[in-house]
Amino acid sequence: METSLNEYLKANEPGPFRAVPHYFRSGDYLTYFLSDSVCYAKRLDDVVTLYLEPGTDRLVGCKVKGVKQILRSAGDFGIDLDGGKQVRLGLFFFVGAAPDRADREPKMKWYDLLKELSAVEFDSSQFALCG
């Protein structure tokens, strides 16, 4: 017998929120949320999207696109990633923060917020966990 979504959710209640980076192989992106607060998306650049709390613009989380390409490029340029096992989010923010155009200057304040997340590490061998 097939289980309905409601039955499944009743039998498999979610646990408490945990701030953990999640990689989605199908879209080659990762997300990291500091809390489960209501938020809206603000695209910062081609790589990083911020999730901000409405009304306060408090940083709730972020999304990084092109994860595999960034890791591949880092290795091609001799940036040692400890075999790719533990990767810091700061690497991805650095790619977006490189101010190569004057129109990016107003956005630099957002990168200052992301500095707080730069030391967050994730195990790249877990990439396939989120589909």
Task: Describe the structure concisely.
The protein is α+β, with helices and mostly antiparallel strands.
Describe the structure.
The chain has 131 residues and is an alpha+beta fold. The chain has one domain. Helices cover 25% and strands 23% of the residues. The chain contains four helices and seven strands. The strands form two sheets. It has a five-stranded antiparallel beta sheet. The chain has a two-stranded antiparallel sheet with strand order 6-7. β1 and β2 form a beta hairpin. The longest helix has 10 residues. The radius of gyration is 17 Å and the shape is globular. The two termini are 26 Å apart.
Binned, the helix content reads: 25-40%
Proportion of beta-strand residues: 15-25%
Name the shape in a single word: globular
* Biggest sheet features: 5 strands, antiparallel
Separation of the first and last Cα atoms: 26 Å
Determine the mean pLDDT: 79
What is the string of SSEs from the N terminus onward?
HEEEEEHEHHE
The structural class is alpha+beta
Radius of gyration: 17 Å
The strand count comes to 7
Count of discrete structural domains: 1
Tally of helical segments: 4
Q: Flag low-confidence runs.
A: none
